[in-house]
């Protein structure tokens, strides 16, 4: 969705009692703080920043993107909070060690302590098409769940 299209949609939603959850990897918001400032004009929006992995190396493995762009997702959270935009991080943990996750939480703490309490944990669910894609990519999750055995707190 293009930026101007999003802003027009948010203008319409702001005229209702509905809320809009914008799910994004945060790259554009981290790169350009004016994006967060523009989002702050809308009372209806909450931003869910979907972060793949807890380190730049995990991020690069999972996305194929340059490792250094991982920091833009964290910068997005800071930009959103600085602009007064409701947001939270959702982080893919299936490929992360406990130590990396703890370091990630420490990084969030340095941005804003509230983020640590609002982390939404994501894990891989091993549907047949997901298993095929993981195998093709040559990556194996440390933690994953079969579709018939997903923990209640993840549903």
What do these coordinates show?
The structure is a single chain. With 155 residues, the protein is α/β, with parallel strands linked by helices. It folds into 2 domains: 120 residues, no CATH class; 31 residues, no CATH class. Helix content is 47%, strand content 17%. The strands form 2 sheets. It has a 4-stranded parallel beta sheet. α8 links the parallel β5 and β6. α3 crosses α5.
Question: Numbering strands along the chain, what is their spatial order in the largest sheet?
Answer: 1-2-3-4
Number of helices: 8
What string gives the helices and strands in order?
HEHHEHHEHHEEHE
Distance between termini?
27 Å
Radius of gyration (Å):
17 Å
Core attributes:
155 residues; 6 strands; 2 domains; alpha/beta; 17% strand; 8 helices
């Amino acid at each position: 969705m293009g930026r101007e299209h999003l802003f027009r949609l948010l203008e319409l939603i702001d005229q209702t009692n509905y809320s809009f959850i914008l799910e994004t990897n945060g790259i554009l918001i981290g790169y350009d703080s004016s994006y967060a400032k523009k989002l702050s004009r809308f009372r209806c929006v909450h931003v869910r920043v979907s972060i793949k992995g807890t380190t730049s190396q995990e991020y690069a493995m999972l996305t194929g993107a340059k490792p250094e762009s991982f920091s833009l997702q964290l910068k997005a959270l800071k930009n959103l909070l600085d602009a007064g935009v409701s947001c939270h991080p959702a982080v893919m943990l299936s490929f992360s060690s406990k130590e990396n996750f703890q370091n990630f939480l420490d990084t969030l703490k340095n941005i804003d302590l509230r983020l640590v309490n609002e982390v939404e944990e994501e894990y891989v669910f091993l549907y047949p098409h997901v298993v095929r894609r993981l195998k093709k990519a040559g990556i194996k999750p440390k933690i994953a769940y079969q579709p018939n055995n997903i923990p209640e707190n993840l549903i």
